[in-house]
Amino acid sequence: MNSDKKGRSLQPRVPMPCQPAHERVGNFHEVALGYSREDAMREASRCLQCKKPKCVKGCPVEVQIPQFIAALAKGDVESAYRTLRETNSLPAVCGRVCPQENQCEGACILGAKGQPVAIGRLERYAADTYMALDACDQLTGRPECPLIDPDLKVACIGSGPASLTVAGYLSSRGFKVTVYEALHELGGVLVYGIPEFRLPKSDIVEKEIAALRQQEVEFVTNWVGGRTFSIDDLFAEGYKAVFIGVGAGLPRFLDIPGENLVGVFSANEYLTRVNLGRAYGFPDYDTPVYRGREVTVFGGGNVAMDAARTALRLGAESVRIVYRRTRDEMPARLEELEHAEEEGVRLELLAAPLGFKGDADGRLTAVTLQRMELGEPDASGRRSPRPVEGAVYDLPTDLAVIAVGTRPNPILLEATPGLTLDRRGYIAVDEATGMTSIPGVYAGGDIVTGAATVILAMGAGRRAAKDIEARLRPAT
Length: 476
Ligand SMILES: Cc1cc2nc3c(=O)[nH]c(=O)nc-3n(C[C@H](O)[C@H](O)[C@H](O)COP(=O)(O)OP(=O)(O)OC[C@H]3O[C@@H](n4cnc5c(N)ncnc54)[C@H](O)[C@@H]3O)c2cc1C
Ligand code: SF4
Prior knowledge:
Structural class: alpha/beta
Radius of gyration: 23 Å
Bound molecules: flavin-adenine dinucleotide, iron/sulfur cluster
Number of domains: 3
Mean pLDDT: 92
CATH architecture of the largest domain: 3-Layer(bba) Sandwich
Strand content: 15-25%
Number of helices: 19
Strand order of the largest sheet: 3-2-1-4-15
CATH topology of the largest domain: FAD/NAD(P)-binding domain
């Protein structure tokens, strides 16, 4: 193995096999195909097994990364998977969607001189391979798996990654957890937001949830916290703690003229129709979708990439992403940005929308854009975009998708007296424990931080679950 003076492996990371770009734009199958056993063992052998591993510090749920990678290097998938599941309830999901470049891989020591270990790809391999063996039965049937205590009842509201983490952590320690979800399907954004071609629903999300069911987690769908039941009702039913993980699902708009024209959608509606409503299967599924020819997407994050790539797969002739800053500032995962470009999505950088134009029937025909430039760095070191005087132009478009962020849904918040919100309208919590202003009520994920990432939501779930355990079952 090539090494530098300090013994660091300089081998390049094993590439991820993918569907070729020209094929995948015509289908909704998963883009990244996953490592083979040989790939995984070769990549795992690049890990230096650091005594003080920086990668673990970079992981919000503290996966024991060197340990699971060492098991994979020996081909022992089962013990790799068990190590992952000790701290991460959704390893197959995280292996696919976490922004590893900012988390564990960003901290990996090999990154200083070469390429970090492909921790996410290895996590995905371990989880997929173990789940394909249908070995979850074995996992949950292990002798050390505690019996569930029916009196240690905890409720989670919302079924996104924050709540699923609370459910996984506490149920594996003998708590009786019930997850209440407003929609008819479980998984939160993992199901209604992130498209099938990045995160297959039946193969991955449903299997992760099935593993939680085997840990006796109960799921109740079509249940709207703050409407169907209140938090007080849950305590009256004997729950000892309640975790709020309702996400931040209300879309933000641009607040510019023409936003009501036919053909302008929030990314939330567009992606929910396609993913949850299976609109890509219309007319076999009865959710229609608006198919654009010249599509414009506004925003620079994962949501914008997903909307743009979805539009391509639905047959758009051209798809542009309009973003106020440059490519370097785009907050999307690097892999998603690269995949989008490979597939033919074009970036309209340093441009901001001023208004939409329509025809006599009220249908979208164009967007007016303002050319921007980056100014001097502000106190945070970030260069803010500012308009270039007189540089205004029109871009023809018949479908616009707005992906510029979300805000909290007020239903549960308004129905819960005594719940303190921060000045942005999200739930205020104790950072260390996730406890809200109401004793016994916890919150975490996007409803606390605003739109963030799966792994940060899971980290918050884990902190809250630890505190719930410590409070309800103090160490003897
Ligand atoms: C299109 C898209 C792509 C993304 N891509 C990535 C990515 O690649 N990597 C990444 O790390 N992050 C990504 N994210 C962000 C990530 O998905 C979120 O940060 C994460 O899902 C937040 O988890 P959560 O548990 O807080 O809430 P959510 O996943 O939003 O789940 C909240 C759940 O609560 C339910 N709910 C809401 N109100 C109520 C109520 N009153 N009663 C009962 N249930 C309720 C909702 O229906 C929902 O199911 C993406 C987000 C979107 C929208
Ligand atoms: S920092 Fe990188 S090389 Fe070191 S243990 Fe973690 S993954 Fe392996």
